Predict the 3D structure of the following.
Amino acid sequence: MNAIFDESGSFNTDVLIMERPSFQSIIADGMVTEEKINEQGQRVKDLIAQMEPNFTPEQKAQIQDLVAEVSVLLTAVAIADRQG
């Protein structure tokens, strides 16, 4: 698995995403469907549910903040892409 940040301190998201079997499966046929998005959403929920019992209250708050801020980032990128 690659590091979260590259040598310049930028998110290494392109590499992290491309190495995920889940992403490879989603794009395998060139179509991103609502079903695939729902399956990925369930995969994320399952991972969080599996990990959550191990979180301290402070870690849970940090994870919630992280998920919220990553969601804001992804939504902002999607909006910017639509704006051209």
Summary: The helical segments are 13-18, 21-27, 34-51, 57-83. The chain has a mean pLDDT of 92. The longest helix spans residues 57-83. Residues 33-83 form one domain.
